Each structure stands twice: as C-alpha cells, then as structure tokens.
Fold each of these.
Amino acid sequence: MSRARAPGTFGAAWLVARKDLAIEFRTRTAFFSALVFAVLALCIFYFAWDESIIAPAQRAPGVLWVVLAFSALLGLQRSFSIEEHDRGIDALLVSPISRESIYLGKAIGNLLFLCAIQLITIPALALFYNLPIGRPLMVVTAIVLLAMIGIVAVGTLFSAMAVNTRLAELLLPMLSLPFFVPILMNAAQATTRVLGDRPLAESWPWLKILIAFDLVFVVACTLAFPFTLEE
Amino acid sequence: MTSAPASASARTVLSSGLTAPKPIFDWFFALAGLSVLAVAVRAIYFTPMEALQGAAQKIYYIHVPSALGAYIAVGITALTSVVYLWLHDERADRLAEASAEVALVFITVVLTTGPIWAHKIWGAWWVWWDMRLTFTLFLWFIVAAYLVLRDGIEDPAMRGRYGAVLAILGALLIPFIHLSVYLFSARLHPMPVVLKPDKPSLPPEMLTTFLLAFVAFTLLCFALIRARYRIAVQRDLVTAFEGDGGSR
C-alpha cells in the first residue's frame, strides 16, 4: 500500500469535493433545479399568509428556514446517487484514501453547493419580503452558514445510507428532517431576533446550541460513515 | 445473494442456539397482559377520583407508565446498537429491532393519551410548549425513521449496521431536541407545574396504583420485546434456510 504517496485526509477530501463540484459545474442541472425551487418556494410562501395580519418582514425568518431545509434536501439527494452510475462509489473506495476523507469531501462539496444556493436565496428573500439590507442580513448569512454545516453533516451521511435502500431518495427526508429540527428551531429563533434588530446577545443561547450541534455531528457522522459502506 | 454467505448466516443462527420454535403459549406475555388488565380494573374501580381533575386524571395510569415503557425500549435499542457495531452479534441487532418496534407502540400510546388528557385539563388537544409532549413526538419520528430504514434494506448485515448508526445518532440527537424545546418553551410559558400531580404527595391508594401500573407496563414492555425478538429469530431462520436451498 503506497500510503506515502497518497494525499492526507483533508487533501483527499478536497480532491473528492473538487470532483463533485466539477461534475456539478459542467452539468448544472441540480444547481438550477434547487435554486429555482428555493426562489419559487419563497414566492409561494408569500401568499400563504394574509399580508394584513402578519407583516412580510415578520414571516421572513420562518419562510427562510423552511425553504432552506427543503432545498438542502434536494441538493443532498444527488450527493451519493451520482456515484451509483457506473458504480463510481467503487472507484472511490478502491482509491488510496481513507473513508473519512470520502465523507468529508462529499460534505465539503455539498456545503459549497448549498451555500451557493443560499447566496442567491437570501438576497431574494430580502427583495421579496422587504428586509432592510445591512448588518442584520450579514448576521443572518453567518447563521445560515452555521446551520448549513450541521445540515450537511447529517444529510451527507443519510444520503450515503439512503441510496443503498429500496426507497432510495424517498427515505432521505424521513431520516434527515428529525435531525434538522434542532437546527431549524434554533436558527429560526436567532434569525427572528437578529432581523428584529435585537442585540446579538439575545440570540446567543440559540447560537450556542447550533455550534454544539455542528461540533457533535460533524465528528459523529465522520466516525459513523465507514459503517455505511460495504465491508 | 449467493448461497455461500447465506449458509454461513444459517450456521450463525443455528450456533446461537435459538432454533427450537416453541412459542405455543407465551406465559410471559399472558402474565403481562393480565397484570395490565388488573391494574386497569384497580385504577378504574378501586382508586379514588382526583379532586380537581376528576376521571381525566385516571388516564395518567396509562400515559405515564407507557412513557416509561417507551423510554426503556428506546434505551435498549440505543444500547444494543452500540453492542452490535462493536461485536457484530446478530442477537444484539434483533433485540434492537424488536425494542424499536415496541418503543413505537408505547410512544404512540403516550401521544394518543396525552392530548386526550390535555384537552380536558389544559383546554387544548396539543400544546407545543409542553416539552415532554413535543419531545415525545420527535422521538416517535426518529423511531419511525429507524424502522422504515430497516425495512428498506434486504442484506441483514447492512440492515444491522445502518440501523445501529441511525440509533446511535438518534441518541445523540435527543439532548439537542430536549434543549431546543426547553429554550423554545421557556420563552413562551412557564412550565405546567400547577396541574401536575406531585408524586410524593399522592394519596397512598393512588401511589400504589401508580407503582403497580409501572410494574405492569414494564412487564408488558419486556413481554412484547421478547415476542417480537422471537419473530425476528424465526425470520432470520427462514431466510437462512431459503439461502441453503439455493432459492435466493
């Protein structure tokens, strides 16, 4: 085994992520469908409430997090299903990189993919819901990044598991959404406060749980991933 | 699947000494069923009415013990999942599967009886600010996902590993849901302390009924897990023998 020539865990992870992003950049199908879904959902949710009862700016946090969770699911679904064509996953498994790097690479690829979608969704939200553009929106973007790390950590693992079941993509929401609950709950609460121009200290308890979630599940899912591959 | 690994798994099943099919009469299950029935009779006819809540309080003799049963079953699933990933013992996996299914039943009972009581006492079928109710609901979703995941996988070894991974991650998730719901509800309402029966100050008859109900439902929980475990053994035997005959 030529371990000496193989890249390290993070170097290999970056190679895997770059491969996934290159495929996505050349086909662009998943990106556009997830993006259009997100923006479309923003518009549809606008009409779900009576404008005169709840001001658009007040429902923006809730809408943002619902749309974000479901567009994330769309992006995560294809993470491992693209490896099913021609059994690309086998090629990854025989390559001289650790299984943890495959997971981290997939997760980094998914994170960048989803962040790219959010970079358009958040301004679209501000546009459609008349949010003030400025510091609060920057803080919200930071919260979104924090939440995305947790969503991607569990979502990538479950995506790897779901493709090997009879139900395939249908199973991903059922597995992932219970794990998204603490993320969405805390992120939405923090977002409401930030957009309401409350001091950041008020959001801190929610953000602490979010950070703890990220730490625990990035480590736990990285350790659990090798068990989801064929031995 | 070729017959070679299948006959190997047949040997594993046979070597674990669980081949003799003997569930003609499940005495343990009968005992558990009778004790639950006895507790129900005691709770309805021989336990005094609670002064403030009236008959609605009696639902507690099902609701709280069921929650206990659910937590026992969920705990067994989490523990046996760790054991399975560690030792790769098929018995641990069967036990995890059996207790997860029993857990779903008990949680369903908790989630059905809870709103009935809440409707009478709190005036609303569902209150999101009650931490335990919300928390139990999400527990139901996790257990349901666990069972659907297992159902979608044919290969026993993969089913075991995937199930174990989800169960362990689910156990890690529980404190986060608990904390989130707590933070969420602390902001809205004080915890419902007034109408909660304070257990040490219960009248002795009620306390006895409560304790008996705990015993009966724990028995029922273990009896159901045992019965479900036997079904899993039978299924694995059938799969193994089918593999031996080369039909798969």
Note: The two ends of chain A are 18 Å apart (CA to CA).
Amino acid sequence: MDTIVSAWFPIAVTIVVSALIVGGMVTVNRLLGPRSARNKVKGEAFECGNPPSGSAWNRFSIRFYLTALLFLIFDVEIVFLYPWAVELRELGMVGFVEALIFIAVLVVGLVYAWQRGALDFE
Amino acid sequence: MELGNLASLQAFYPELLLTAATLVIVLIDLLTSDKSWLGEVALISTSGALLLIGVGPLDGGAWLFRRMLVYDSFSIFFRALIALAALVAVWMSIGSQEVRRCEQGEYYSILLASALGMLLMTESANLLMAYLSLEFVSLTSYVLTGILRHNRRSQEAALKYLIYGGVASGTMIYGMSWIFGMAGSLDFMAINRALFATSHIPVLAVFIALVLILSGLGYKVASVPFHMWAPDVYEGAPIPITTFLAVGSKAAGFALMTRFFYPAISHLGPDGNWQPLNQVAWPQLLLVVCIITMTLGNLAALQQQNMKRMLAYSSIAQAGYALMGFVLLSNDGLIAMLVYLFAYYVMDAGAFLVVMIVANLTGSEDISAYRGLAWRRGGALLAISLTIFLLSLTGIPATIGFIGKFYVFAAAIRERFYILAVIGILNSVVSLYYYMRPVKAMFLEQPVDSVSAVTVEYWNYGLMGVLALATIFLGLYPPPIISFASNSLRFFISSS
C-alpha cells in the first residue's frame, strides 16, 4: 500500500496544483474583472488587437498548401543536417557520403517540384 | 549478430534497388516526353528486388542498422510475398487502361515507394521503425488510391482512407507510447525482457496498450472493427492498386502484427507453443475479432453488385481466416497462416486481374457486365479462369485456396479450437453463394451483346495464365509452398 501511495503521490500533487492554478485564475478574474454586458466588440474574433476584416470562410489558393508542404520537407532536412554538421568529424567519410546521398535525394525532389511548377506563384 | 550501418547494406539490396528505381523513374519522367516505357522500368526493378531477396548473411539472421531492422527467414518469406505482390501490381498497371490515363512517372515511383515501405514493415524490430514504415505505406497508399484525378469515386476513396488512416495510426502510436512507458524501450527484444522480468507491470495497462496498437495493425489487415475503409477504397482505387492493397498491404500488416505479438510480447515454449507474457488476454480478444471479421465480411459480401466491392468484403473475410492461424498461439498455426496468405495472394490477385480485364473491355465492374461472358467469342478462357479463382477463394479441393483453408482448419482442430473450426467451415459454405454469383452470370445467363468478340491483350492473358496454373498446380502439389512456409517460421531473437 505504501509503495502505491508513494508512486502515485507526485501525480496527485500535479493534479491538485493544476486545479488550484486554474481555479485561482478563474476566481481572481471574476472578482477583479469588470462586469460588462455582451456587446458587439466583445463578440468579435480576437486578431491580436486589429479589427478583423472579411469572413474566415474564404477560399484561398492551393499554392499555399504546396508551398507549406515543400517548406516542411526542407525544414526537416535542416533538422537532420544540424546534428550531422556538429558530429561530422566523428562520423568521418562514411557519414559525409551518407549525408550527401540524403541531400541528393532531396535535390531530386526539389528539381521535380520545380519542373512541375510547384514553385510558380504566377 | 548485430550489424552496423554499412555492414547492414549487404542484406538490404532489394530495398536499395527499389529506392534507386523510385528516384530514377522520377528523373526519367522529367527528362523524356515518351513515358510509355516507365512501367517496364518499374517491372524490371521489382523483379530485380524479388531476385535479390535471398541475398544476405543467412546464418540464422542478423540485426540490421543497429537493431532497427531484423533479417531472418520470417522476413524473407514476407519480403518475397510483397515483392511478388508489387510485381503483379506493376504488371497489371501496364495492362490497365485506367492507369494509362494518369501520370506515369508519379504512379510508378509512388507504387515502388509503397512496396519499399511494406518491405521495411516486415523487417521492423523496433516500434519506432514499425510506426514509420507503416505510416510510409499509408501515405503512399492514399496517393495511389486517389491517383485517378478526374474520377470522383477515386477522390472520395482517398479522402476516406486518409481520415480513417490518420485516426488509426494516431491511436496506434498512443498505444506504443504506453508500451514505451512500461518497458522503457522501443526495441522488441527489450520490450520482451522488460515484460518477462517484471511482474509489477499491471496487466490491464498492457492490455489497453495492445488494444490501442491493434487499431493501427487491424486497420492495415482490414479486420473488424477497423475494416470500414476497405470497401470504399477497394472500389474507388484503380484495380492494380486495389490488388496491391488487398494482397501486399495486408501481408505487410500480418507480418508486422506477427512480429510484434509473437517474438516481442510472447514467449516460445519448448513444444512450439507460445505463451503471452504477463498472461495478457490478447489471444482471447483476437479470437473474437477473428470470428467477427470472417462472419461480417462474408455476410456483407452476399448483397454486393459491384465485383470490386464484393472482393473487398471477401478480402475482409479472408483476413479473418488468416487470423484463425494467428490466434492459436502455436507454430503450426503460424505456418498455416503463412500458407494461407500465400494462397490468398495467388487467387485474389487472379480474381482482381480478371475484373480488370473485364473493366478494360466493358468499362464496368458490375456483376451484370459478366452476363454470358463464357459464350461470347474469345471469352471462354476468361470465364474459366475467373471460375478457378473464385472456386479457390471458396476453398474447393484441387485449388490452392483449399490447401490454405485445410491447413488453417487443421491447425485449429489440433489446438482443440473446435468451435472456431466449425465457424470457419460454416463461413466457407456461406461464401460459396456469393462467389458463385458471377460464375452463374457468366455461364448460365445470356450475353448482353453477343455480336462483339472479346479481345484481350496477350500481356494480360500471360499473367492470368500463370496465376490460374499456379492456383491449380499448387492446389494439387502443395509441398513447395508448405516447406517454404514451415522453413520460414524462424524469428531471429538472439539477445546478444
């Protein structure tokens, strides 16, 4: 019984603390905050302080999606290349060639996307 | 034997070849304007990959790439099966009119990439690798399903597949995180040691984790309750891709499932029987899943009017029969499952091939398009072949399907799962009804249009002949496939 209690004690503490923080914030807000009726400004979407314009249901170009996808791929490439660059001396020639092959594969992809017009924004 | 990155390459030729072929096809697609021969490039690469599968350090097996992958006879069996499935899919693609209309370079490079992912699935020895390869196969399958860009059904199928797949793999990786939390490792052998050594891991937690993981694996093999995507996807995808998903993806799912549930979380006794570690009740759960899968698949297939949809439900039922071998917890059961999966590959690929030939001819996949096919000029051979494949799927003697069913039912009876065997046999009887409906349409009904002759390209006839002969030949003389399967049931589990 003792071991069960001690094993779960940190989790119980976490639950209690998080409940206290959330409960405290809500209570303080209610005590100190101004009580205004619902109005038009309050019902608006919050856009970092700017007055929102237009509808959120606009259609937008599929190009954004393609660009985002390409960005993601090359972003991940960089994530792999940083640790490789740091450890290059230790990895030696084998690691160097491996990374070159990796980059070559991605270059093929980039060339393909380019030739197919994925980078044209008109 | 644990091999490092460079040494592992000697057991990795098929995967390297497929990777290179994927890139080369993309480049050829960019450089040339005549794209009609890209299919042949893909065909040569898949045959090359098939031939290279046996190459490797075959002294019991080895861990590759620092224990991420494993090379053993079990993985050789499934790699061969998947390479064969890819070969059939590429061959069918070359003869398919649907595929000729879509982007050749993208189609073949993604198809080969998908085959690569399936090969990796069969070899995974680490939950991370298992997840990555499964996700790789899923992503490529979504694209291949939706590759008919101007076909609404194909688009709808791809979207449904994506949504179901996203939920299933998300659930699965959550389950994997539970296993990692309890075992402290993602390596299959380390998980085995952790579950074997410690008794304070709560059984319920392991069970919940396995149920979560099963959602991803059950989705790949299309077992109930994760089967809902199959009919829509099989119907919407181009027929070669349907075939590839039905035989390749399912085989890869079974391979990964077996490797995870057997060597990773079970213990092999001296008599060839397995014992689930920690007494977790997954065999009982899977037994229920297996019974419901085959019953539901067969009952739902009864009313289908579209051949692809009917074969989709039939393939759900077939997954149920293969699961029968899986739940028995014995080496005999697993061998029966391997035999069954091979038999399923031959007959299901054949049935889909005939559906594709008829769709090429008539543009229709409905059973009504088969009316009187046997009596049309040049149609007899087609009708006889389809009859052979459908009889084999039912499990009539003298076909490879009978051998598969016989081994599965015999293994179930040997392990005293009598009720399971009876349910399986009853299911086969039910399935006879819907498998015979196209046969009745072909032989007993009058042709819609008796004037036009049936013309089939030799390319498609060749493959159909090979598969039909294999169905009959291996049905009459099964030792080659039986001995291949029983020699393949060796997992490499050395802990050094």
Note: Chain B has 20 helices and four strands.
